[in-house]
Prior knowledge:
about 190 residues, 8 strands
Amino acid sequence: MNPAFYQIKITLRDSHPAIWRRxxxxxxxxxxxxxxxxQEVMGWDNAHSYVLIINKQLYAxxxxxxxxxxxxxxKFRLGQVITDKGQCFVYEYDPGDSWQHYCVVEATxxxxxxxxxxxxxxxxxxxxxxxAGGIPGYEDFLASAGYKNHQRHKEMIDWxxxxxxxxxxxLNVINKRLQRLIRRPSx
Length: 187
């Protein structure tokens, strides 16, 4: 496998307006490292379990109590499971809240030695707060937190840790977090 970079668009399912990110990521990273990249670019706290569903196969951190046929995500590199431009797969974070992310491989780019292992190149909107209750819970949170006269406004703002701007997106902050997270893997 020759190293390459994939450009992947990630969209949080059922988010309206869409919460999305476009990343460029090395084919050489493990699926577990890819999970960490997704946590950073989306803004999650990595507090829950996750699964990648690629070509009808489940990849995650092994759980001996799970009855599903799940492959160990630390043993597979992104380039082993991504086959071509246009390929779609799902990343599900926190199965209780069911944050499903649709991932589409938009392009395969040539490998560049001086390029960061993972880079966010575009995106829109803030990630929902952790444990918001999936999209329905997030919509309730926005309805409560967004209106000062709402009876649950103060409760929701306190729960979220302060003011929340659903339109916020800062590419520079995301990329700084990514660079602290990932060091270039060896070829």
